[in-house]
Specification:
The chain is an alpha/beta fold and about 375 residues long. The chain has twelve helices and 17 strands. The chain has two domains: about 200 residues, FAD/NAD(P)-binding domain; about 140 residues, D-Amino Acid Oxidase, subunit A, domain 2 (D-Amino Acid Oxidase, Chain A, domain 2, 2-Layer Sandwich), CATH 3.30.9. The protein is globular, with a radius of gyration of 21 Å. The structure holds flavin-adenine dinucleotide and glycine.
Length: about 375
């Protein structure tokens, strides 16, 4: 007799693993199925920035979710350390959004004045910017200092969420492909996999950029597309910057162990993870314009990942209107690491039939899917 689970999650990226963790904490019998290894796709490629103020605008439907999610990190990091012994390298090191023109400077000054007081966002004149980060290019017209937007190791976070869940009783099957659904009338009761059929009361598709092709098996369209991003990392003997530096088309994230992670390109509509010379050259030019000393750094490695983007630009988080027992959590595009904790909570509440006010107010914002 096949083992019956409360919830079966397809996809072992940060979104699937965060949902797995929250459900495991609540004592649910949960199974996660991953085609490759945990964190092997976008979640293993991400820079790990928790950029509420750098990537999202104040009025965006995602802003409050992102703020709540980022604020969960100190406790989450501690919990994961206690359960797994793993350090997800969470730091609240802050970010600086650099301005290159007078117009950009003016717009940042007004952002600083409009941002919530608790965020502590501050405009830095060129002089003050130099005092904060002395190695930055002197061509900058100033910067927006965002103290609360920190960063984590995205692969370690994803792995720790998976491991913590297993320690709490969850099952995880890696190297297992879900290729279809098991339909009983209007209900999805399980999935067909490379190791045979598996059943659960609730199925959640969290397959990142690959969710769309799986959901097409049962006629569900979520209007999503892949967006490739390439990154590289270097090592330097000195800490060239304390905070993450963010500009249009390039960011530099200081990581533990003298590493600097530099990202990221954007190529839409491709699942090809090949790293291009043009992408690397473009990033290197931008990064050395921002931080000239990087030219003397030691090369570490380059990689890429496929971001899941939706037509409306917002993640899809909720139940299918057409199929009972089917839910979906994908389309987190550039902010899946930032949004993973809150997505885990909202989906766990949904599975328990609890009304979550954040999810309730967010649900209206994305385009209907079936
Ligand atoms: P994924 O991590 O892609 O996971 C989906 C998983 O599902 C995959 O492992 C896949 O193998 C599995 N899967 C799919 N279909 C099936 C199937 N049929 N059967 C079994 N398994 C299946 N976000 C931030 O918040 N901060 C950042 O700094 C940041 N930087 C980024 C930098 C880059 C270069 C990239 C590419 C992304 C970045 N992101 C960042 C975005 C973030 O990585 C994504 O939003 C997030 O990882 C998406 O998580 P996911 O779990 O939905 O997808
Ligand atoms: N959020 C950074 C990226 O997606 O590249």
């Amino acid at each position: 007799m096949a083992k019956q689970y409360d919830v079966l999650i397809v996809g072992g990226g940060v979104i699937g693993c965060s949902i797995l963790y929250q459900l495991s904490k609540r004592g649910k019998k949960v199974l996660l199925i991953e085609k490759n290894q945990l964190a092997s796709r976008a979640s293993g490629a991400a820079a790990g920035m928790l950029g509420v103020q750098t990537e999202l605008k104040g009025g965006s439907p995602l802003y409050r979710l992102a703020q709540k999610s980022r604020n969960m990190y100190p406790v989450l990091a501690q919990e994961l350390k206690e359960v797994t012994g793993m350090d997800i390298e969470y730091v609240e090191n802050g970010m600086i959004k650099m301005a290159w023109t007078e117009e950009e400077a003016q717009s940042f000054v007004s952002v600083a004045s409009q941002t919530d007081e608790g965020e502590g966002v501050e405009w830095l004149s060129p002089l003050k910017l130099s005092a904060f980060e002395p190695y930055l290019s002197k061509q900058a017209t100033g910067g927006l200092f965002i103290p609360r937007d920190g960063n984590v190791s995205a692969p370690k976070l994803t792995e720790a969420l998976g491991l913590a869940s297993v320690r709490l009783g969850a099952d995880v099957k890696e190297y297992t492909d879900v290729y279809d659904f098991i339909v009983e009338g209007s209900r999805i009761s399980g999935v067909q996999t490379s190791v045979g059929p598996l059943y659960a009361s609730e199925i959640i598709v969290a397959g990142g950029a690959w969710s769309q092709s799986l959901l097409e098996r049962i006629g569900v369209t979520i209007h999503s597309h892949p967006v490739k991003g390439e990154c590289f990392s270097v090592k330097y003997s000195r800490k060239l910057v304390e905070r993450t530096i963010f500009t249009e088309g390039c960011y530099i994230v200081p990581k533990v162990g003298g590493r600097f992670l530099i990202g990221a390109t954007e190529h839409a509509h491709t699942f090809d993870e090949t790293i291009s010379v043009s992408g690397m050259m473009n990033l290197m030019k931008k990064a050395t314009d921002i931080l000239p000393n990087l030219i003397d750094a030691d090369w570490e490695k380059a990689w890429s990942g496929i971001r899941p983007q939706t037509e409306g630009g917002l993640p899809i988080i909720g139940r299918s209107e057409r199929w009972e027992g089917l839910s979906i959590a994908t389309g987190h595009y550039r902010n899946g690491i930032l949004l993973a904790p809150v997505t885990g909570i909202m989906m766990a509440d949904l599975m328990e039939g609890k009304e979550n006010p954040l999810l309730h107010s967010y649900r209206g914002s994305f385009r209907k899917w079936n």
